[in-house]
Amino acid sequence: MSLTDDRAALDQWYTLGALQDFPDGAEVHSRLLGEDLTVRRLADGVEVRAAGRALPVRTEYGHLWTSFGTPERNLFELPESREPDRRWIHCGPVRVRASGLRLVENFLDLAHFPYVHTDILGSEAHPEVAKYEVEQRRDVDELWATKCEFYQPKAAAASDEGQISKYMYRVVSPFNVMLYKTPPTAPDRWDVIALFVQPVDEAVSVANAFMLVIDDTSTDAELSAFQQMIFVQDKIVLENQRPSLLPLQPGRETPTRADLSSVLYRRWLKEKQLRFGTEPRTDLPNA
């Protein structure tokens, strides 16, 4: 597979992973949107090259970012990254045989908590998804889901009893999403858990989980292990979904009331005319 010609995909910022995973002086080979890359961390910065040309580079939020095109916007703002009492936790990359868009949509799904993350993020005795609100914020080109609540037996690594967790979801670009949730020890603030997805090919992705949390109890290893455990459970589901690419045409998959975020996300992708990682559509002229 070669580099896509999908302009909507090319003109985005993508992470290639946490900066800590690129040793000084070493040459690291990677892949993005079907194209091979070479990453070299130098004394004065980071160089990313593909097919003989240098690509633009950003180093924000402890991650390395690049693009094949000309993004309309800079990277998203993350004010919590400037708060001195937050823990920065890089959970490590996880390779998944699924479209990166499937990963983002799964991240947005509250309804799977009781059945995939049983007795951790959800309980089969409390499967209901309470009504929540979704909106497209056109001034920043982001999607938000707010007023989300869910009963969780173990909401975080520091939890020792169940709680009603409050959530907000924020999609900042097609392959980058984060959630804000109430930490057990600071109910007046929000933990931030981000999923930065590197779409290797259309049906292969690397998930980079990143947390900015308020937790004075757990070790870095415990926080990372908790998040990895959750994502490994998701990985099993994601790799068994069919089709592995995300369908955007009407009628291919039937949403429920709990899927408001997914419906808005798919509508947003269609509005952007994004094709990479989506199932070929038959509802278009000459498709």
Automatic annotation (TrEMBL):
It comes from the Bacteria. The keyword Oxidoreductase applies. InterPro entries: Cholesterol_7-desaturase, VanA_C_cat. SUPFAM superfamilies: Bet v1-like (SSF55961). Pfam families: VanA_C (PF19112). One of its GO terms (molecular function) is oxidoreductase activity. Residues 97-271 form the Vanillate O-demethylase oxygenase-like C-terminal catalytic domain. Keywords: Oxidoreductase. This is (2Fe-2S)-binding protein. It comes from Devosia insulae DS-56.
